[in-house]
Amino acid sequence: MAVVGAGPTGLFTAMALAGRGHRVTVVDRDTGPRPDGSWPRRGVMQFHHPHALRAQVAEALQAELPDVWEELLAAGAEPVTVEGADGARTLMAVRCRRSTFEQVLRAAAERRPGLDLRTGHVDEVCTSRGRATGVRTDGAILDADLVIAATGRAGRLGQDRRAPARGGDCGIAYVSRQYRLHPGAQPGPMNFPLGQTDVYPGYQSIVFLHDNGIFSTVIARSSDDRALAALRLTEVFEAAAAAIPALAAWTDPGRALPFTPVLPGGRLRNTYQGQLDDTGAVALPGLVFVGDAVCTTNPAVGRGITTSLLQARQLLHLLDDDAHDLVGLGLAFDAWCSDTIAPWFEDHLYWDAELIRRWAGADIDLTRPLPSDLVVAAAQADPGLFPLIGPYLGMRALPASLDAARPRAAEIYASGWRPPVPQGPSRDDLADLAAAHGAGTSGR
How confident is the model at residue 83 (pLDDT cuts 50, 70, 90)? Predict the structure, then answer.
């Protein structure tokens, strides 16, 4: 088998297949971490930005790669548990940087029996008699009875064989920066187990607590809001962080110091593309797309690695059942993704569009279905909604599960209630701050 792409999805899938006795070759252009431990990971913008690992990621490792799970914990990843009504504690998420996660996976893959990790560029999928037979890598043929394209959100391999992707740019951009807590320093304020999130009219601020005392700060805005584009400048970002109360508390020099430069995050996409061509047939038997090659979502809610590893586990299940019926494999996997993964794409597509509309000054439109973020926010006014929204927040129930909460949420908004606006600068205040502090750096 050949796996194209050595990101989290590709490596997880390859190691799980190798553990089943398959011979697997993984091909990726990236040479891996340098001898000093640094890893630019060029072409993978999200590698350096904040990530949240949901419980499903830990469950995937525990089920398929328990040794890797133990190594991730040894590398500093921190499980986050919550107490249920029965007093038992349940894993909810894992505090961990994307870089830590990938370094552990990569190191495990390099020593995995039955797995060959190669550096190279895959030029095309090789075919014979209407099915995939391998890949051409830097001019050489790599034969394979199954090709798994885990090529990420920017991958082009085999794209023209499938029906066009749905969705596109989500209309949101952000900047982030990582900091390290001083030894013995306590984390800053938190309003959810992974950190702090505050939505303002016109922008959003988030803090994600990671492993080994590292945390990320994020300021997100509409991609069209050019006045806030200067947040990518260090002086402007630091001024904004000092003005936004939660960020100010976390980034206080007495608590933490910057660990990275200010990093811009753009070209964020909500997209979905299945396994079939525009006639509804499997695009190419023996070629299966998985991970971000199927679905990408706005990273603000941290669903990407979860949806990718859920796909990987389902693909493994189908291969365990029958690895020879390649057409049936493609059809079954596409149907499962349509039912289980596409709803998260559709959820983000609507959520982001409505958020951007409100950021532009529009009020909540009660003539339209409430987006998921507003249904969740309504629980602040009626805590009785929490049992309905909890499974959705944990991705244990699909977005349609919120339909049961929408009538009550609509009543709350119809009464005039609106989510409280956190203390801090308005969008216009932030734009003025950006203009004032950016003026002296615009030529740098």
Answer: confident
Percentages helix, strand, coil for the chain (3-state, rounded to 5) are 40, 25, 35
3-39 residue pLDDT tens = 999 999 999 999 999 999 999 999 999 998 988 888 8
Span 307-319, pLDDT tens digits = 999 999 999 999 9
Neighbouring C-alpha atoms within 13 Å toward the C-beta of 121: 4
DSSP string, 285-330: TTEEE-GGGTEE--GGG--HHHHHHHHHHHHHHHHHH-SS-HHHHH
The reported pLDDT for the residue numbered 36 is 86
Give the position of tokens 């919550």.
82
Nearest to 257 by CA among 217, 290, 304: 217
Q: How far is CA 353 from the centre of its chain?
A: 18
Task: State the helix-helix crossing angle for 98-110 and 66-74, rounded to 10 degrees.
Answer: 130
* Predicted pLDDT at 109: 97
All residues at 6 or more sequence positions from 328 whose CB lies less than 8 Å from its CB, including other chains: 322
Calculate ∠ Cα 295-298-300, nearest 5°: 135
Bridge partners of residue 272, in order along the sequence: 166, 295
Residue carrying structure tokens 């419980």: 55
Contact 308, 9 (CB under 8 A): yes
CB 352 within 8 A of CB 378: no
What is the residue type of 200? Y
Interacting residues of 164 by C-beta distance below 8 A, sequence separation 6+:
273, 278
Q: Which residue has the higher pLDDT, 332 or 160?
A: 332
pTM, whole model, 2 decimals?
Answer: 0.94
Give CA separation, 370 vs 154, 240, 279, 300, 381, in Å.
Answer: 31, 31, 34, 19, 15
CB 170 within 8 A of CB 269: yes
pLDDT in tens, 274-296: 999 999 999 999 999 999 999 99
**Alpha-helical regions (H) of 30-176:** 55-64, 66-74, 98-110
